[in-house]
Each structure stands twice: as structure tokens, then as C-alpha cells.
């Protein structure tokens, strides 16, 4: 069995070495990076299976690193945030992080979260990780008037524009648009997109829906919309909205 490789990005040598010890004992190969400016080079040369990313870094910030990685990769990323800093969590999830953990943290909990994220992905033929959940059994391209969600290329086209979306946003849009007019609770969306082992709350769904709407609203789409069903959840509505 080939060991998984984790890239630890944290400028604190004590934390990094502690995590190296714990991950190594658990069978991981471990890479360490102390500076945000070096993360992309290490990623390109080493292709880690998962990244643990501190947000406060010298050089590029963790947010900038996350943004740059999501432009080219779906590698699972867990962000490290200051305890109780809700804004960091929300922004990190908006930019495409798969999970987060607060400092100070228990190394065993972090490893459990890393394993949970890795269980939710499987390799695609092109070597890119894709979430391993129920939506994979459906057709890979969903088409509606002025909307194409293509999971083979991980692209979204709205009107004449190609919209950049992090993987989780695309998967959420794909899931909803492949089940038109069906209402899903936030818990159901978490289960289908993030998996049973996700440690975040339902606020994660709201954040992603907000970002998806902002991106899609740059082009007209009168034939469909992502509708909030108050007290329940969301649906991809294709019927004409009420005039009231």
C-alpha cells in the first residue's frame, strides 16, 4: 500500500515538527513548508495528497495560497484558523477549503479530519482527486438554458461566460441542478457533498450557496434559480417563480 503524502504549511517549527511526528507514526509521508511563497513550488514538484494550511504565513498568506491552488487543483486542503475566528473559517470555505480546524488543536483530531477528507475523494483517470459520493453516479454534464455544469472538466458556463468555481461550489451546483425542483435540507447537502465525516456546520452550505448565486447572477437566467426554502433548505427551481 502506497503511503499518502501530507504537506504541512506552518511557520511555527514546533507545530510543524509535532505534526511530522504524529503523521509519520500514522503512516503518512510528510513534507513541511514554512513560507507561503514556497507552497506552489513544493506542490508542483511533490504532488501531495492533502495539504494542512495555516492562514498566517510569511510571504503569501494562507488565503492567497488557497486561492492560487484552487485555480489549478482539487487537492484536499484543511485550513488552520485562530480559535473562534469565524471570518477566517467562512472565507477559507468560500475559497475552496475542504475543512478547517481551530488552534490550539489536538494532533489526533487533525489526523482524523485529514483521513475523513481523504476518504471522500478518489483519483480520477487524469490523476486529479474527485469527491467520492453519490453524485458520481450521475451524468457528468448537466445542461439547462444558459447553464452548463461540466464535471469532466470542472467548469461552469452561465450564458456566454465561463465561471470560476472552487470544487465544492461546483459540486453543490451540480448536485442541485441534477435534481431540479427537489428541496434538500442543509444536512442532506452536507451529507451528499461533504460526506458523513465533515466536522463543519450547516453554515458551510449557506456560504457556498451565497457565493454560487453571486457568480451566476452576472448573466441572466430567467429559466431557473437557486431558491431558498425557508426553514428547510434549498432547491434548483426550474418552474416560473411566483409573481407575488
Report on the structure:
The protein has 244 residues and is α/β, with parallel strands linked by helices. It folds into 2 domains: 5-124, Response regulator (Rossmann fold, 3-Layer(aba) Sandwich); 134-237, Orthogonal Bundle (Arc Repressor Mutant, subunit A), CATH 1.10.10. The protein contains 8 helices and 14 strands. It has helices at 13-25, 39-46, 62-70, 86-94, 107-119, 167-177, 186-194, 203-216; strands at 5-9, 29-33, 50-54, 77-82, 99-103, 121-123, 129-131, 141-144, 147-150, 155-158, 161-163, 184-185, 225-229, 233-237. It has a 5-stranded parallel sheet, sandwiched between helices. A 4-stranded antiparallel sheet has the order 8-9-10-11, covered by helices on one side. Strand 3 (50-54), helix 3 (62-70) and strand 4 form a beta-alpha-beta unit. The protein is elongated, with a radius of gyration of 18 Å. It starts with a strand and ends in a 7-residue tail after the last strand. Mean pLDDT is 84; it is low at 122-128 and 132-137.
What gross morphology would you assign? elongated
Biggest beta-sheet profile: 5 strands, parallel
Distance between the termini: 60 Å
Percent in strands: 15-25%
Query: What's the architecture of the largest domain, going by CATH?
Result: 3-Layer(aba) Sandwich
Low-confidence blocks of residues:
122-128, 132-137
Predict the CATH topology of the largest domain: Rossmann fold
Q: Which radius of gyration do the C-alpha atoms yield?
A: 18 Å
Task: Please identify the top-level CATH class of the largest domain.
Answer: Alpha Beta
Discrete helix count:
8
CATH superfamily of the largest domain: Response regulator
Amino acid at each position: 500500500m502506497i503511503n499518502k503524502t501530507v504537506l504541512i504549511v506552518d511557520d511555527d517549527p514546533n507545530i510543524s515538527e509535532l505534526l511530522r511526528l504524529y503523521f509519520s507514526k500514522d503512516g503518512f509521508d510528510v513534507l513541511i513548508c514554512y513560507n507561503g511563497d514556497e507552497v506552489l513550488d513544493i506542490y508542483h514538484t511533490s504532488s501531495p495528497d492533502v495539504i494542512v494550511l495555516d492562514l498566517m504565513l510569511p510571504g503569501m498568506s494562507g488565503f492567497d495560497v488557497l486561492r492560487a491552488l484552487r485555480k489549478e487543483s482539487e487537492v484536499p486542503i484543511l485550513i488552520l484558523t485562530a480559535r473562534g475566528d469565524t471570518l477566517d473559517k467562512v472565507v477559507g470555505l468560500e475559497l475552496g477549503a475542504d475543512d478547517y480546524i481551530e488552534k490550539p488543536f489536538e494532533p489526533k483530531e487533525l489526523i482524523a479530519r485529514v483521513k475523513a477528507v481523504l476518504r471522500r475523494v478518489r483519483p480520477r483517470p487524469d490523476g486529479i482527486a474527485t469527491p467520492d459520493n453519490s453524485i458520481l453516479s450521475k451524468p457528468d454534464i448537466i445542461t439547462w438554458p444558459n447553464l452548463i455544469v461540466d464535471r469532466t472538466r470542472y467548469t461552469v458556463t452561465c450564458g456566454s461566460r465561463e465561471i470560476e468555481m472552487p470544487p465544492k461550489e461546483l459540486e453543490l451546483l451540480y448536485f442541485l441542478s441534477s435534481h431540479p425542483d427537489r428541496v434538500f435540507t442543509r444536512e442532506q447537502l452536507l451529507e451528499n457533498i461533504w460526506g458523513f465525516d465533515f466536522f463543519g456546520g450547516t453554515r458551510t452550505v449557506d456560504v457556498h450557496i451565497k457565493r454560487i448565486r453571486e457568480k451566476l447572477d452576472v448573466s441572466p437566467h430567467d429559466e431557473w434559480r437557486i431558491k431558498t426554502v425557508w426553514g428547510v433548505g434549498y432547491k434548483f427551481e426550474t418552474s416560473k417563480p411566483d409573481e407575488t
